[in-house]
Amino acid sequence: MNRKEKHERKEAIALKYDQTIHDAPKVVAKGQGRIAENIIKKAMENNIPIQEDRNLVELLGELNINESIPEELYSAVAEVFAFIYRTDREVGKRKK
């Protein structure tokens, strides 16, 4: 780990998507430093998959809490949700 990585502040964005209620995923939590660490810790405690993508976090970080993601980010966020669905499916197979 180089010096820059060691001193970089963690950032985290939590998204929620319920297609029966929302047209697009919404930002439900975001933060840096300890707040980001708490978001990540909560996700891990609740077995919510985590995907790291600094560029996407930077773009989503410009949104407000409860704001839907813009159409320009649909493709990138769709990749995240595809990752989550694959992970959930794999975990489900292991539990059987």
TrEMBL record:
Gene3D superfamilies: secretion proteins EscU (3.40.1690.10). The keyword Ribonucleoprotein does not apply. One of its GO terms (cellular component) is plasma membrane. It comes from Bacillus methanolicus PB1. Keywords: Cell projection, Cilium, Flagellum. Pfam families: Bac_export_2. Signal peptide: none annotated. GO terms for biological process: protein secretion. The keyword Protease does not apply. This is Flagellar biosynthesis protein.
